Amino acid sequence: MKNKMSKLEKCWVLYDVGNSAFTLLVSTIIPIYFKNMASANGVSDSDSTAYLSYAISLSTLIVALIGPILGTVADNKNHKKPLFTFFMMLGVLGCAGLALPKSVILFLAVFVIARVGFSGSLIFYDSMLVDVTTDERMDEVSSHGYAWGYIGSCIPFLLSIGLIFGADYIGISGTAATMLAFVINAAWWGLVTIPLLKNYRQNYYVETKSGGARESFARLSNVFGELKNNKRVLLFLIAFFFYIDGVYTIIEMATSYGKDVGISDTSLLLALLLTQVVAFPCAIVFGRLAQKFKTRHLISVCIAAYFAVAVYALWLDAAWKFWMMATIVGVFQGAIQALSRSYFAKIIPKEKSSEYFGIFDIFGKGASFMGTMLMGISTQLFDTSRAGVVVIAAMFVVGFILFRLQANAEEGGKQGETYLHRYVANENNVYEIEDENFAEERF
Question: Which of 160, 161, 180, 301 is the 20 to 30 A CA-CA neighbour of 26?
Answer without folding.
Answer: 301
